[in-house]
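User: what does the whole thing look like in 3D?
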Amino acid sequence: MTNKARPAKEITRGLRDWSDNRGDDSDDALLKLVYRELHRQAHRYLQKERVGHTLQTTALVHEAYLKLVGQKSVAWESRSHFFAIAATMMRRILIDYAKTKHRVRRGGVYSDLPLENALTISASETDFDLLALDEALDRLAAKEAHLAKVVELRFFSGLDVVETAEVLGISESTVKRDWQMAKAWLHRELTR
Amino acid sequence: MADDNWQKVREIFHSALGRQPEERRRFVHEACGKNKTLLAEVESLLSSHDGADSFLEAPAIAEVANVIEAEQKNLEAGKCFGHYEIIEQIGAGGMGEVYLAKDMRLERKTAIKILPGNVAQDEERMRRFVREAKSASALNHPNIITIYEIGETDDTHFIATEYIEGDTLRERLKGSPVNLKSALEIAIQVASALDAAHRTGIVHRDIKPENVMIRPDGLVKILDFGIAKLSEPPAAAGGLTVNDSEAATAIKAYTSPGMIIGTAAYMSPEQARGLAVDARTDVWSLGVVLYEMAAGRLPFEGQTSSDVISGILQKEPPALTLFSDEADARLDEIVTKALTKDKEERYQSAKDLFIDLKRLKHHRDVEAEIERTNPTDLRSTQGGAQSSGISKSISPPVSLVVEITGNQTANQTIVADKRITIDSTQEKSGSKRIVAIVTAAVLLASIAVWVVWHRRNLSWARRQVPQIEALSSNGDYFAAYDLAAEIQTYLTNDPTITRLMPTISDMLTVTSEPSGAQVYLKRFSPDVAGNFPPRQLVGTTPIKDLRIARGQYLLYVEKDGFAKTAQTISGTLLRGGGMTSIPPPLTIEQKLLAADRVPNGMTLVTGGDYRLRAWARPTDAKVHLDAFLIDQYEVSNQAYKEFINAGGYLKKQYWTYPFIKDGKTLTWEEGIQEFKDRTGLPGPRNWSSQNFPEGKANYPVTDVSWYEAAAYAAFRGKQLPTIFQWEKAARNGMVSAATNYLPWGAFYPGDTLEWRANFEGDATIPVDSLEFGMSPFGAYNMAGNVSEWCLNETSEGFISAGGAWGEPVYTFANYGRFPGFYTSNKRGFRCAMNLGGTGNEGNLRIEINKEIPVYSRSSDQDFARWVKAYDYVKSPLDPQLEKQETDAWTRERITFNGANGERAIAYLYLPRNFPRPLQVIHLLPATDVEVGQRSADRAAEAWLATEIKSGRAVFIVVLKGYIERLRPAGYVEPDQTTAEYRDKMVNWITDLRRGLDYLETRNDIDSKKIAICGPSSGAATGLILAAVDRRYASVFLAAAGIRKSNTQWIAEANRVNFAPHVRGPILILQGRYDENLAWKAEFEPLYKLLSEPKRFILYDGGHAPPMELFATTIHRWLDETLGPVKKE
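Assistant: Here's the predicted 3D structure for the full assembly of 1320 residues, as structure tokens:
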């Protein structure tokens, strides 16, 4: 379970690019620190928590935040800023987990299974694949980056509407509308 | 540009979501205008949004956690697990890993399956799973694996089963076909196991090669019964079938995502859609497995699971014969029937599939035997056995022979000859052998005959396809569907039929609460004698996606101990808005009430928020309705008599509303004096000596006031329905943009009112007549027969709704307002009963505030300019004439060159025995004729029969839009402010004036004595015609008026501009309570505009004048203005 899908550097670079767009000057080391902490927390959650319990992603990110802020007195632009970055990181962490899993299955003992036909059912009316979602989210970002951000915060970081509105500095009703739009668009991408 | 579009997409998407669902489509079409790309984008997003409720709502981490969880469960060899010792891992599936283990207590090998933690944690689901797995195991069926133990050790749930040495079918397949003999043997065993399980109510849900074990001796064992169910949401797993909405709710409520519950390739369409499944889903999956065994490939392939699923949902699999030399049409048809997307048309049970497979195997064995004993290749002789083999067809040979007796053909003769040959060559052998051979020969002959028979059927079926197409385009969907269903028995996957199916059939879903109710359908398809086919039992609720012919039906839902329900349903293609659209699937959710809760003759109407939808609604208020009961029938004379007999008029307790007459409150004693029958006794005004007219016991009571209706309701422990309750019961909020909506559906030009509603009749009919006019809640005669008192009071009086006999069909949407003491022979009532609701059920007082406008006279100069628009060239009329004699009159149908290069049509009614030349009444009919709801000639006879009989000719021109000259389907009436509307009116007026030109050519007509007669909408046309053309000597209008909004209309077709310039004496017959054109606000301002000589007659009634009053009034008016009719 220690498999790192992507070199941390690349992730950090990606994060910096993202930050640059926001005119942010956070240093690499800090971002790495955040990433590691989130990853550690996620890993701990995923390994220890019994599935079936409600997983509070928000709690996880909060915990990481408290830990980092407590350890190192870094002047984050704001708490919101942290959550915004953390959401992107959580997306990468979780997608990497999903990828790792796929790789194990493709090369491992289950090679007889017709994997291309294996279907991940989310136990909702919609069947979707986390990796396909990740790709679709990139396409959505190309259309309207803002919508992808809302999805990262809501889905990957587990924030609710109020928190998302706070982080992005927009109204709750705007978040609701964006969420509605993003869901409809992604759902269509994943089901057609 | 692209971004621009994206912003537009977003805007329209959000605005659409802000609207009521039923308004969305229209809104989006309007908002997108002609931009088809935009429209497609927004519509697909909206549709996606509707299915995305729970999508992304569970956090991502939960999904990842599941994946990890599954990995953690791996057990290592040698590890002890309870009293089992793990030997090795032998498999893995979506529902956990499988190990070979040794049961240390019983010293036997066993297979252990470890269940994922998230599944095991749900106690309710575990309990259900255990129950199901055990009962499957308890079947003790040779083809079902035996379960030894279901238990829990070290927090890990497991299942221990018999260990089977052998291969899974997956291993056996290895991407290549299994020989057909083995494939059939395997499939037969699987089908047999499934049949046994299904009969005890257990569905496997995950039949696939991985779950089919084959022992070296050929015995097949099915694994994992009930396991797939663990992965389903609780409610969906609760029974064999679950109604869709429950399942959807359950799915939404179920939040643990990320389980792999099966491989997409074997899923049935209903499974792939996430709908509830039943035994037929296993039939499908076995069909896939059988296909794969025979073809060596899957029927639905794709790069990704979603490709596979889209194939399952939409594509037909390639014919088996493409991949297998062994496969023949019979196998292909069995597989095709198992793989029918509509589960109603699939094999309905594993048993049916089992039988067909057995038969096929048997036939093949026989064929093989014959081929071995007789070198001649039967199948090549027969042209490759182009046969059909679904269960109806693969019947025992004997019955086949019987069935085709008399169908002798050349092929059969050859076979017969061959049989003789076989017989003679074998005759020298021993007698036992002869018997065997003869048996074989008979079988051979049977097969051959069966081949011929099916080839004939097949070619017959092919010939029918164009017929289906023709029936469909004629709108005869019952016949088209029946024929299609019949030929599909022989001819599957015909592309034309596949294409037509969505047009000629509908999917019906019926659920009831409680379920298990019988559902019957009765088609609205009278034969020439007016008889209807009997109702047919179509199933027991829940019924999901049952394919039925498109059309109109009565639907009955009945269950013992519960009140029976009936209603009309309609899958009629929706026409309007410039297109024909296929209606959404028919979904009926029927709540059943215990029989003892529903008084006799009442029916349940469900609650919910309600807003009036009829176009003439007096208020837009939204109210909350609780579920309530409403009388199925109007109150009959017989029932009302019970009220009188019980002293209803004497008991003050029933009369709870204060009597108000002309603004004054009367005492009870004063008020009750008003309610006298013809003989002065208390009772309806048309009764005598407290008896209803003879023979009318079962007719609706009429001639009763609102107060009497309310008192009767109190006597029954009921009350009058509020207008909101009444309308909900009558049309359940349905409305059509293109035409009038009636209780059974939209009423299109050419549709019949027969068996539906009494509008055109000349008296009431019994209350339980016209079952096909039933409302969506099973109430009769809500449209027509009698207009019905409702509870609500308005500032203009009490509401009466639904239209009556002798009124145009559109009066269904009219809500008249009348004084509480008002009575008429068109007014009755029915009662409602609230089921303990808390709200006021819409009993609100409605204020009607219509502004009273003042119009000014248009100048002569302006009028001269507008009237120029109506100039036309007097080109040759070229009239052609057909005569028809009846007892009462001579009717001529005349065609002549009309406006816009079209042939116009007119009817001229000539009285018998009156001296020529005749006076003529030129009738301009009401809206019902204008929009094609009633034909011009029938309207002429209804309005003016008495005038024809008293010696005047009647003339009516069939204008564009009337029956006989209907507009193309989807035509939308132009907005009255536009030039298109002016052009429409110019064409109409031109046709009318050309008709007048024609009358002038006739010697038997006195062209100086032509009068206009225009009721309602005809009055509106008359105001223009009589101003434009000076040849009319007299004008008679009824139910006339100008709405304030009409002032916006285009000048050349604006009645305000034309009314002052109407020539000639004019009389208007107007109802004091006209609900369409109000006395003060709409009639009087028009009347003031008219020039002298003018007159009006006011009567106590609504929009549609009583016929006898209409007839006598026009007769006197024409006597006065044209002179009396000359008699000899």
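In plain terms: Confidence is low (pLDDT under 50) at residues 1-26, 49-55, 70-76, 102-127 of chain A. The helical segments of chain A are 8-21, 28-48, 57-71, 79-107, 130-143, 145-156, 161-168, 172-191.
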